[in-house]
Amino acid sequence: MTDSPDIREQAAARAGELGFDRFGVARAELLADDLDRLRAWIGENRHASMDWLARDPERRCDPQAVLPDCRSVVVVTMNYDVPESLERSDAAPTGKVARYARGRDYHRVMDKPLKKLARFLNRLGGEGTHSKPYVDHGPVMERQWAVRAGLGFAGKHTLTIDPLAGSWFFLGVVLTTLELEPTLPPNVAAGCGDCRACIDACPTNAIHEPWKVDAGRCISYLTIEHKGPVDPDLAKDFQGWVFGCDICQEVCPYNRKRARPVADSPFADRLVPAEWSLAEMLELTEEAVLERFPQSPVRRTGAEGLRRNARIVLSNIGKP
For the chain, which has fewer Cβ within 10 Å, the N-terminal or C-terminal residue? Predict the structure, then answer.
């Protein structure tokens, strides 16, 4: 039997207390259309070297394959759009760091409150209720569930866009056997329309078609996940990015006109500068990265990858 709205509102209130900005619920069911698209994307090798995305796509699209008897998918957001001074870390030249990676690692920030939300759902459901939380580290299609839960729509760059606030937010998901009433879908009139801002702005043509991204051409993938040398034809178009890339979000009209920075965000403390000294990056060792940035996403690339990215940007500005 579907839960009453009151139970759902209790869960939403608890999510707010835990620091999440928005809360939505979708009915747990097979994402059949998304499964077809995922299979096609993998078949075209658009996932590049991220082999974990190709493992068991059926499970990734079926919440009941992850949590037996799953009835609801709870989705929450946490804003990482904070005011920026954009002060350079040192003398020029510098490289640009994606906005999400300048503060604490979102996995660390969201993990504990999401686990608390899962435990709260278990208490609401009573004995026998089970819930599993995920922060971008499990077989869950976070963005697709966010759309189904009414938290936004899929932009042509494939990110979720809140029509009222843009796309500068992280997603957390809780699969639960508790049956909650689904939240309403987003305004059907909201969407990208004929806008091509993100497609036309991408310097490496990673958004090769609307709603389709070739990870192997994406600057975020190339500066973070990719190991070894970068194809020179792609490296020449990095446009100063040394960790991640925000171009497709920066040009989005929803972000330009409706996003509002939040000063009290848990991501407000800057661990890495927006403009990072390339000379400093070239001196990094693996030990230094682990010691200086224990809570930063830049650890994922490691010193070798960061030095490679710095060399690419230096080469692009004529300073090899």
Answer: N
Examine residue 251 and state whether it is found in any structural domain, yes or no.
yes
Do 11 and 160 lie in a common domain? yes
Say how far apart CA 294 and CA 231 lie, in whole Å: 30
Quote the tokens at residue 231: 């194809």
The whole-number mean pLDDT for each consecutive block of 10 residues of the chain, a chain of 320 residues, reads 76 98 97 97 96 93 98 98 68 92 96 98 97 94 96 96 96 98 73 96 97 98 97 98 98 96 90 95 96 95 98 92
Q: What pLDDT, on a 0 to 100 scale, did the predictor assign at position 184?
A: 79
Boundary of a domain, candidates 127, 142, 176:
176
Q: At what angle do helices 106-125 and 5-17 cross, to 10 degrees?
A: 150
| CA dist., res. 271 & res. 312, Å (int) | 23
Selecting among 36, 69, 136, 269, the annotated active-site residue is 136
200 is catalytic: no
Write out the residue range of the structural domain in which residue 205 sits. 197-316
Looking at the DSSP assignment, which residues form a beta bridge with residue 175?
A: 73, 132
